[in-house]
Amino acid sequence: MTRDSYQTKAFAAGMLNPDAPRPGEVIGPNGKAANKRYDVYRNNVTVSLINAVADIYPAVQKIVGEEYFRAMAREYVRAHPPKSPLLFLYGQNFGDFIDGFEPAKKLPYLGDVARIERAWLTAYHAADLPPLDPAQLSLVEPERLAEICFQPHPASFIISSDYPAHDIFLMNRGFMELSKVDMDKPQALMMTRPQTDTRLILLNKSEHVFMNAILKGSSLGEAATLATEADANFDLNHNLQMLLATGATTQILLDSKGVSQ
């Protein structure tokens, strides 16, 4: 390791740890130790990362309040330094962090709300690929329909929660009026962004099983079987129409490896 790289590593190591010693090589214009300058810079880095997390998770912040949120985000920032200079990529595991954050245990749905917010931003920045043209389905031989798989759109996500996280997210992002929610009501949703607008589709049990299986690479036949096992009233035509209408996929595959059309 060169001296310059060593100094850079030493400088960065203390950025997110207020208890870390200041690098001895940090000096001011007059050649004296720049302890105060380093502390100011260290604080600015931490604050900027907390602000980035707050920008990504406004619903979580609204639920717990700004003071609580910033204290929680500070702990996250110290434990999870950024790996990319692109701030919108930061905080991808914030929902998992919240699950393990002891003071947040009384809000067990909070991590799921964070995962919805993260998926929302990821969908917004996902590649602009055209959704599957429904006409392509008519080109598949009927006897092979059960074999086909679908390539998921990069902006498509399935998120499930043991709590009404979908409604809590919408209410705390201003997309839905505030109201009382049944905390014993689990919810699953599919997020898509086939064009420019991100969409959330609330799924019932069989829809969740079917869509989740499809987006994970199961064939149409396999997904339908799993959904029927979950709900004997599963309607394949309805679910297939939903899959096509939401733009959750981009192309048809004969199997998980080969493109058919």
TrEMBL record:
Residues in Putative DNA-binding domain copies: 9-98
Domain of life: Bacteria
InterPro entries: DUF2063, DUF2063_N_sf
A family per Pfam: DUF2063
Protein name (database record): Putative DNA-binding domain-containing protein
Organism: Ahrensia marina
